[in-house]
């Protein structure tokens, strides 16, 4: 509805002046639409009926991050708050917005909860496996190689090499044998 009258100030109070109006159709809604007032704003109200997870299982490497992929059902639901919890934060952590990060080698579960006052709480679980991976090799010691020396003649007896792991665990020594 569009009102075409005007408003005048009557001693600090606004009062309408008689005018005309017209009904303007801007679209049609074929489904039932519910609006809710939160004390400040009127907003569309679509309650969730369920939730879906991106996957029931995840495999990550230490240091890698991935989204839990939780979504409301129906997709246009406007209610419900997601909360996340890890069964073992030494293996994987999860942020308040659902980002799972591999911390240490092992397995744990991430519990995802969707809740809203007055609605049924929905819960899902993601089984997470975290692998520790080699990110490099650390070389300790000195190598002296003169121009023209054959690889078979390079002396590696004073050199040690250690694996570097994503978790930061002490690397095992590896052989530099020719």
Strand content: over 45%
Topology, number of strands: 18
Instruction: Give the CA-based shape.
Output: elongated
Strand adjacency order, main sheet: 8-15-14-11
| H/E element order | EEEEEEEEEEEEEEEEEE
Helix content: under 10%
Query: What is the CA–CA distance across the termini?
Result: 87 Å
Mean pLDDT: 86
Low-confidence stretches: none
Number of helices: 0
User: Which structural class fits the helix and strand makeup?
Assistant: mainly beta
What value does the Rg take, in angstroms?
32 Å
What can be said about the biggest beta sheet? Answer: 4 strands, mixed
Give the topology, please:
Blueprint (H helix, E strand, L loop, with lengths): L1 E2 L2 E4 L4 E4 L3 E2 L11 E4 L4 E4 L4 E3 L4 E5 L3 E3 L3 E3 L7 E6 L5 E3 L4 E4 L3 E10 L6 E10 L2 E7 L19 E6 L7 E2 L4
Parallel strand pairs: 8-15
Antiparallel strand pairs: 1-4, 2-3, 5-6, 7-10, 9-13, 11-14, 12-13, 14-15, 16-17, 17-18
Description:
- The protein is mainly beta and 178 residues long.
- 0% of the residues lie in helices and 46% in strands.
- It has no helices and 18 strands.
- The chain has strands spanning 2-3, 6-9, 14-17, 21-22, 34-37, 42-45, 50-52, 57-61, 65-67, 71-73, 81-86, 92-94, 99-102, 106-115, 122-131, 134-140, 160-165, 173-174.
- Strands 8-15-14-11 form a four-stranded mixed beta sheet, with no helix packed on it. The chain has a three-stranded antiparallel beta sheet with strand order 9-13-12, with no helix packed on it. Strands 16-17-18 form a three-stranded antiparallel beta sheet, with no helix packed on it.
- It starts with a strand and ends with a strand.
- The model has no long low-confidence stretch (mean pLDDT 86).
